[in-house]
Amino acid sequence: MMIPVSALVLLLDISPQDSVRKSLSLAEITPSAVLFAEMAARDGGEDALLLGRMLELSGRFNEAALYYGMALEDVRDPETEAWLEQRRTGSTPLDTVLVLQARITNKGSSTARGITLLMPLPVSHPPYQEIRILGGAFEADSGFLVCKVDSLGAGERRNLPVFIRVEQHPFTYRPISMPPGFPGLESLGGILRGIEIPASFTGRGPCLDMSRELARLATQAGFEVEVVGGLVGRGDSLIFHAWDILASGLPGMPLDPLLFKSDSLRAVGHCPTDVIPLWDLARGYELSVLYPSDQRGMEIGLRAFFLPFDPDSLGLPALLRFAAEPPGFRQDEF
Questions:
Q1: Which of 121, 294, 297, 327 has the most CB within a 10 Å radius?
Q2: What is the pLDDT of residues 179-226, one digit of tens each?
Q3: What region, left, alpha or beta, does residue 135 occupy, with left being phi > 0 and alpha being psi -120 to 50 degrees?
Q4: Are strands 225-234 and 129-136 parallel, antiparallel or unpaired?
Q5: H or E segment at 40?
């Protein structure tokens, strides 16, 4: 059989890795992209990681988790090992109890009274996540979790937890096709590419400001977009993060403008279990405090961690004692 010269040159000049890149789009991870990734994986090294990534992004999560696990056996580089472990975690179903622990400290010189702490009410994100509030120091009221502190002495600090059961399985919206009558995905991609990481920002990180900017620009382009917040797993730590979701067209589909800068494919339509959406941030931040205007010096913080034991083995009073002073206090924000 005669092979055209042009085809022969193509075979020689285009590597499997290049072929993978040419087969990708925000909307779809094509079967040919996975096939070319399998070819690249035969060379080992970083090319082998490409296959796990393509399996995960195409929604073949069970295969991705198995592949990441096998790749871990041969990795010696700590950074690559951490990445593989995180991606394996994100491709595996999650069934856990989260502790959200609010901390309030009275930095003033007198007893403060009539204090109210507010969190947005965590809600489920179907079709891939179900959330249940198990209890704690907060109560649900009008879309918020509310905790009333009658008095807090000068210099006193109090830790106030809420316990949340999260059941979540990895999910993808790919292949992504916007319904008739809605702007196309290409328009969203253009908006995401145009949002830069700000030099200064209102929180500990740029994610909330970037998400609000995306919501503003996407609304102008004809999309309905909501700013949401939640947690991102980093090893044993949980980091607060903000991103966006579509409110119509493909309701719930995530768009992460900060992640888009380093990994555009995971930033659009991808719902791994190391990213845990919790609440709508349209009305403010993850934690707010209200107190009388004549009182000053209230300092608040919020942290999150996985409950390290089965909550059914203890009653709520014991859980509250544990959460009041848990080991290894750490507060992070992404």
A1: 121
A2: 998 888 999 999 999 999 999 998 889 999 999 999 999 999 999 999
A3: left
A4: unpaired
A5: helix 31-41
